[in-house]
């Protein structure tokens, strides 16, 4: 607890980073040239930096264990933290474009690892532009779940191409998802919910989960309850719009 | 590297500078060269210059720099496109314009499907569009609508190629990526299935070419890049098979103290179909070889004759007495496969030995001779234009700190 006193950005009671010291803009331009390091290819992703307990040394990246869940635009990381204990053996990563927010999630994970030895070792975060660099992080068919929770709605038609779910980007997501993998989307903006649903419905490599399947999937409940954005919407009594689809093999 | 607002304005104009391009009919019935908005074609069967006929209402020829010109469908078609946002498909029989397609954005790459039924073109925002051509019934179509096929997220696509078996379409971009996409049965619905990404280049990818063998009908692909390497890929898996530091091979790197900046980008490459030989065009520190300076801006190999056609040139060159210029040269003997040991078999042809002779040169170049200095100036200008267009802006640490300091969230923190 001593070092916590020295570091005012960490909460004294929980040891977790305090959000108010990580003030970030609500939006970031996904079109601008990025100036953060990007792995040349999925082989160049250093797993030992992200998951030191699973990969003690950097040269073990050839091992069969690979990241399986990706939370695109993870924000403050609420969903990841819930998933980390629900799937303790699955490696998962949050991808976030805003560097302040990424910093916060990084600190949050480190604090959780310290406070709960042995736990949260399977979760990490990276600052990147997932709209541009998804194939640099994941191989073909590597992922089994992808999350797009409360993405930036980009209302203007001119800016629709900045939306994280689009007809073309779904091609790339389909590439990194294995057949049978699930893509989860949720928003509190009706227009965007319609848009995401339409994109997924029209894509030949995705099909909707049935209501029974949605009921049986424990992750579905977390979409609105675990994330900071979801809690905010619930607090204000807002509506959410969900689209959960499965990656299928394209019919020829 | 000091970029003041002044220089920003200038760099925009610099990208208007367009390199000269060359395309050769697969059996060398004709040769096409593009310099700025001019499309010059020389018919080698008739031994005469071709006058293009365009009856469309969109306007006659190209109005701005042509960025791509290539033959397709076994030489029956020629397609040209560029900064005027028009894609024109020409019949190489009648030299009539079969179709003019209007693009929303400037066009950076084109490809014709092997069966000649579709033309694909990429705009500068990373979207690849497709338009179907009518069976060759001679009818003229204007303003056909293109539909989007696939997209690289907001990146400039530099090259488009169909695999030799027609099953894949490859697209390369300035974000170091090469994407192999399954070319679907009904491509007008979009191409959604990505076969692979070929990742390994550390700068923009500038050009692609296929190598083809009987045993491997999908072919291998070679790519050239701003990182001055040429890489060989297996497109089925996206794995890197080999990399060649051509910049180093040419003895250019490390010769002078400056690093990074003196990387010579690979500007174009082409191969003979059996894959025994790949020709590479490099941008470089101007070096004179054998008394002449020739830095090709575009290359094309003709396998039936074993000739390598090269052009160097530029358009919109400011501050020079000839703002647009081109010079065509030809190397013979490139279809001989025992090339790696004895390069002397390749012979550069004198101007009068080139098929079509001086009348071809006069047609394609516009003028028979240019001064040496203008080519040096042209090469420098092209290099700047290309890096302005394709290389990411780099900011020094101080500059980045300055940009960050003006951020609002930083100000709040400092006040505390």
From TrEMBL, chain A:
S-adenosyl-L-methionine binds at residues 73, 96-97, 129-130, 149, 227-229. The keyword RNA-binding applies. One of its GO terms (cellular component) is nucleus. Transmembrane segments: none annotated. Its EC number is 2.1.1.33. The keyword Transferase applies. It is an enzyme of class 2 (transferase). Gene3D superfamilies: Vaccinia Virus protein VP39. The active site is at residue 152. Pathway: tRNA modification; N(7)-methylguanine-tRNA biosynthesis. It is found in: Nucleus. GO terms for molecular function: tRNA (guanine(46)-N7)-methyltransferase activity; tRNA binding. It catalyses: guanosine(46) in tRNA + S-adenosyl-L-methionine = N(7)-methylguanosine(46) in tRNA + S-adenosyl-L-homocysteine. Keywords: Methyltransferase, Nucleus, RNA-binding, S-adenosyl-L-methionine, Transferase, tRNA processing, tRNA-binding. Catalyzes the formation of N(7)-methylguanine at position 46 (m7G46) in tRNA. Belongs to the class I-like SAM-binding methyltransferase superfamily. TrmB family. NCBIfam families: tRNA (guanosine(46)-N7)-methyltransferase TrmB (TIGR00091). This is tRNA (guanine-N(7)-)-methyltransferase.
UniProtKB/TrEMBL annotation, chain B:
Residues 339-349 have a biased composition (Basic and acidic residues). GO terms for biological process: tRNA (guanine-N7)-methylation. WD repeats lie at residues 59-100, 198-243. Keywords: Methyltransferase, Nucleus, Repeat, Transferase, tRNA processing, WD repeat. It comes from Morus notabilis. PROSITE patterns: WD_REPEATS_1 (PS00678), WD_REPEATS_2 (PS50082), WD_REPEATS_REGION (PS50294). It is found in: Nucleus. Residues 336-356 are annotated as: Disordered. Forms a heterodimer with the catalytic subunit. Belongs to the WD repeat TRM82 family. The keyword Nucleus applies. It comes from the Eukaryota. Gene3D superfamilies: YVTN repeat-like/Quinoprotein amine dehydrogenase. This is tRNA (guanine-N(7)-)-methyltransferase non-catalytic subunit. GO terms for molecular function: methyltransferase activity. Pathway: tRNA modification; N(7)-methylguanine-tRNA biosynthesis. The keyword Transferase applies. Required for the formation of N(7)-methylguanine at position 46 (m7G46) in tRNA. In the complex, it is required to stabilize and induce conformational changes of the catalytic subunit. InterPro entries: Trm82, WD40/YVTN_repeat-like_dom_sf, WD40_repeat_CS, WD40_repeat_dom_sf, WD40_rpt. GO terms for cellular component: cytosol; nucleus; tRNA methyltransferase complex.
């Amino acid at each position: 607890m001593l070092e916590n006193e020295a570091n005012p950005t960490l909460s004294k009671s929980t040891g977790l980073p305090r959000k108010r010291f990580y003030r970030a803009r609500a939006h970031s331009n996904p079109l601008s040239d990025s100036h953060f390091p990007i792995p040349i290819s999925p082989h160049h992703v250093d797993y030992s930096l992200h998951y030191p307990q699973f990969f003690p040394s950097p040269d073990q990246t050839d091992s069969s264990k690979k990241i399986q869940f990706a939370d695109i635009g993870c924000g403050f990381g609420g969903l990841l933290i819930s998933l980390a204990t629900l799937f303790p053996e699955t490696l998962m990563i949050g991808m976030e474009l805003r560097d302040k927010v990424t910093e916060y999630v990084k600190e949050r994970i480190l604090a959780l690892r310290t406070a709960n030895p042995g736990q949260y070792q399977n979760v990490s975060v990276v600052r990147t532009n997932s709209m541009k660099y998804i194939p640099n992080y994941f191989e073909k068919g590597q992922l089994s779940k992808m999350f797009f929770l409360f993405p930036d709605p980009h209302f203007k038609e001119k800016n629709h191409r900045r939306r994280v779910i689009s007809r073309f980007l779904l091609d790339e997501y389909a590439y990194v998802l294995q057949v049978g993998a699930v893509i989860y989307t949720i928003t509190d903006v009706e227009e965007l919910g319609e848009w995401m649903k339409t994109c997924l419905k029209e894509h030949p490599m995705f099909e909707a989960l049935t209501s029974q399947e949605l009921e049986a999937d424990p992750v579905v409940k977390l979409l609105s309850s675990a994330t900071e954005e979801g809690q905010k919407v619930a607090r204000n009594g807002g509506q959410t719009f969900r689209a959960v689809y499965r990656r299928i093999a394209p019919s020829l | 590297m000091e970029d003041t607002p002044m220089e920003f304005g200038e760099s925009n104009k610099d990208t208007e500078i367009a390199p000269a391009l060359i395309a050769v009919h697969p059996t060398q019935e004709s040769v096409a060269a593009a310099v700025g908005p001019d499309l010059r074609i020389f018919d080698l069967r008739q031994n005469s210059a071709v006058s293009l006929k365009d009856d469309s209402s969109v306007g006659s020829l190209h109005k701005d720099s042509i960025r791509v010109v290539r033959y397709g469908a076994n030489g029956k078609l020629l397609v040209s496109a560029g900064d005027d946002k028009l894609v024109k498909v020409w019949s190489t029989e009648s030299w009539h314009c079969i179709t003019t397609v209007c693009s929303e954005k400037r066009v950076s790459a084109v490809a014709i499907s092997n069966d000649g039924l579709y033309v694909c073109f990429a705009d500068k925002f990373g979207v690849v569009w497709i338009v179907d051509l009518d069976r060759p019934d001679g009818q003229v179509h204007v303003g056909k609508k293109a539909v989007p096929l696939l997209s690289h997220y907001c990146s400039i696509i530099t090259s488009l190629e169909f695999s030799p078996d027609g099953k894949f379409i490859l697209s390369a971009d300035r974000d170091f990526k090469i994407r192999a996409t399954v070319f679907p049965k009904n491509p007008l619905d979009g191409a959604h299935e990505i076969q692979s990404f070929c990742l390994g280049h550390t700068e923009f990818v500038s050009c692609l070419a296929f190598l083809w063998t009987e045993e491997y009908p999908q072919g291998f692909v070679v790519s050239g890049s701003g990182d001055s390497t040429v890489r060989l890929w297996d497109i089925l898996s996206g794995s890197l098979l080999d990399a060649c530091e051509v910049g180093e091979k040419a003895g250019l790197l490390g010769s002078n103290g400056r690093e990074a900046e003196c990387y010579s980008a690979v500007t174009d490459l082409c191969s003979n179909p059996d894959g025994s030989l790949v020709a590479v065009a490099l941008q470089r520190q101007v070096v004179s070889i054998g008394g002449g300076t020739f830095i090709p801006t575009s290359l094309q190999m003709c396998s039936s004759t074993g000739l390598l056609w090269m052009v160097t040139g530029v358009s919109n060159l400011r501050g020079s007495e000839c703002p647009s210029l081109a010079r065509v040269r030809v190397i013979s003997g490139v279809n001989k496969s025992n090339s790696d040991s004895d390069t002397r078999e390749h012979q550069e042809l004198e101007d009068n030995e080139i098929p079509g002779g001086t009348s071809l040169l006069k047609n394609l170049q516009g003028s028979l001779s240019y001064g040496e200095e203008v080519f040096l100036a042209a090469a420098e200008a092209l290099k700047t234009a290309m890096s302005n267009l394709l290389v990411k802006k780099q900011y020094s640490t101080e500059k980045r700190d300055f940009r960050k300091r003006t951020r609002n969230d930083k100000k709040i923190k400092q006040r505390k």
